[in-house]
Structures are given as C-alpha cells and as structure tokens.
C-alpha cells in the first residue's frame, strides 16, 4: 500500500463482508509496519459495538461469519478491535449527524496531515524564535478584508529565513494554495523576474503555466 492515509468507513454491515475485513486487516498491518495513518469513520455505529461486536454491527457479523474462513474470523476480529481504539469520527456525534460538516472536517484534517509532510526543513531546538513568531502571528491573525504583506528586516545571518519558514509551516494548512520562494534576489539576478513569477504560478495555480503567461501578456 503506497497511500499515506487510510479512512475505513465502518458501517453497520461492514463486518458482514469478508473482503472489507481482509482490507481492514491489511490496513491495520500497514499501520504497524510503516508510517501509515488510519483515521476511521464510525458511520452510525459506536466504536464499542465494533470492539465487542454488539448491536446491529455484531449481529451482521455473526449472521455471516459461518461463510468466513477461520483465519478471516480471527484476523478480522483482531483488526476490528484495533481500529475501534483509534481516534476518528463518529457520524452521529459529529455536528448532530450533519454529514456535510463531517465530510468537510475529514477533508480539512487530511489536507492538514498531508501538508505537514511537505513542510519546510528547519533546525531542531531553535532558541529565541518563539517571541518573534508570536508577534508575527498576532499581526497575521488580525481580521482583514485585504491582502497582507509582512516584511522581516535585518542584517544577514540573524535568522530571517528561518523565521519565515517557521511562520510558513504554521500557516500553510490554512490556505488552499501556498508557496515559499527562497533566494529571490539571487534568482532574479541570475534568471530574471520571470523565473520567480513562473515558480510562483506553478506552485499556487493548478493550471498550465504557458496559458497563464499568455493571459498575463494579453492583460
């Protein structure tokens, strides 16, 4: 399995399918053997029912298990127990059962976790950066209807780029598209400002760069 995140949707009839159980066994095995995240959605079932095979969930399993192999039953029950202890979402307890809000929360969480894997590298155990980060975050968090630009000034080597990377990592999951362009002065000097524009366009716009450049020329 090459995916980084699995989202098993555990419904009342989930355990009545040996294929669903086999898939869950594989998912839980991946969680143990690699850096794989499992975020279950308990759809109109309680995690305790999944764990102890109670209620309608357990009834569906017991009605069909005579058609399962002994291995499917043992491994399936083990996987169900393991997934029931994971942090996920219970549809009936989330936003009073409003499925649309549940979907939005799931998407938000997944995007946040995926973007975390693409965060910028910064040194471990930074000293003296928290106060500067908090000051900038306070400015950023002030509501506004307009675009905001914040400059970080100072002599070379005092950590301006590192501070910008920390801020970027903290804020990137709040935006649909984002970009970090280092060494702008050197890149502009060596390759021109169009190279910087193209880099920015490629990172924040999900469309063909040549098309965007043509549109810019027409404007």
Describe the protein's architecture and organization:
With 219 residues, the chain is mostly helical. It folds into three domains: 5-116, Rossmann fold (3-Layer(aba) Sandwich); 121-175, no CATH class; 176-219, no CATH class. 54% of the residues lie in helices and 5% in strands. It has ten helices and five strands, in the order ββαββαααβαααααα. The protein has helices spanning 18-33, 47-52, 55-64, 70-84, 99-116, 130-140, 160-171, 184-191, 193-204, 209-218, and strands at residues 5-6, 9-10, 37-38, 41-42, 89-90. α1 (18-33) crosses α4. The longest helix has 18 residues, at 99-116.
Short description:
This protein has 219 residues and is mainly α. The protein is built from ten helices and five strands; from the N terminus they run ββαββαααβαααααα.
Proportion of residues in extended strands: under 5%
Q: What's the architecture of the largest domain in CATH terms?
A: 3-Layer(aba) Sandwich
- N-to-C series of helices and strands: EEHEEHHHEHHHHHH
Structural class, judged by helices and strands? mainly alpha
CATH homologous superfamily heading of the largest domain = Toll/interleukin-1 receptor homology (TIR) domain
Tell me, what's the shape? elongated
Name the CATH class of the largest domain. Alpha Beta
- Amino-to-carboxy terminus distance: 47 Å
What count of helical segments does DSSP give?
A: 10
Largest sheet: 3 strands, parallel
Q: State the low-pLDDT regions, or none.
A: none
**Strand order within the widest sheet?**
2-4-5
Number of strands: 5
CATH topology of the largest domain: Rossmann fold
Rounded Rg: 24 Å
How many domains, as an integer? 3
> Fraction of residues in helices?
40-55%
Question: How would you state the average pLDDT, rounded?
Answer: 85
């Amino acid at each position: 399995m090459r995916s980084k995140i699995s989202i098993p949707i555990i419904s009342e009839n989930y355990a009545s399918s040996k294929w669903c159980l086999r898939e869950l066994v594989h998912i839980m095995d991946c969680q143990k053997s690699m850096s794989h995240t499992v975020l279950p959605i308990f759809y109109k079932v309680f995690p305790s029912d999944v764990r102890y095979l109670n209620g309608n969930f357990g009834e569906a399993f017991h009605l069909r298990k005579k058609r399962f192999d002994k291995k499917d039953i043992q491994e399936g029950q083990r996987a169900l127990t393991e997934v029931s202890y994971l942090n996920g979402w219970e549809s009936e307890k989330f936003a009073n059962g409003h499925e649309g809000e549940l979907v939005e929360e799931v998407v938000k969480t997944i995007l946040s976790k995926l973007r975390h894997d693409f965060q910028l590298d910064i040194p471990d155990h930074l000293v003296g950066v928290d106060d500067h980060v908090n000051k900038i975050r306070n400015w950023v968090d002030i509501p506004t209807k307009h675009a905001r630009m914040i400059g970080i000034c100072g002599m070379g080597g005092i950590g301006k780029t590192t501070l910008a990377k920390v801020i970027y990592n903290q804020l990137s999951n709040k935006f649909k598209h984002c970009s970090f362009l280092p060494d702008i002065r050197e890149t502009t000097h060596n390759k021109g400002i169009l190279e910087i524009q193209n880099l920015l366009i490629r990172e924040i716009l999900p469309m063909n760069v040549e098309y965007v450049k043509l549109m810019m020329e027409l404007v």
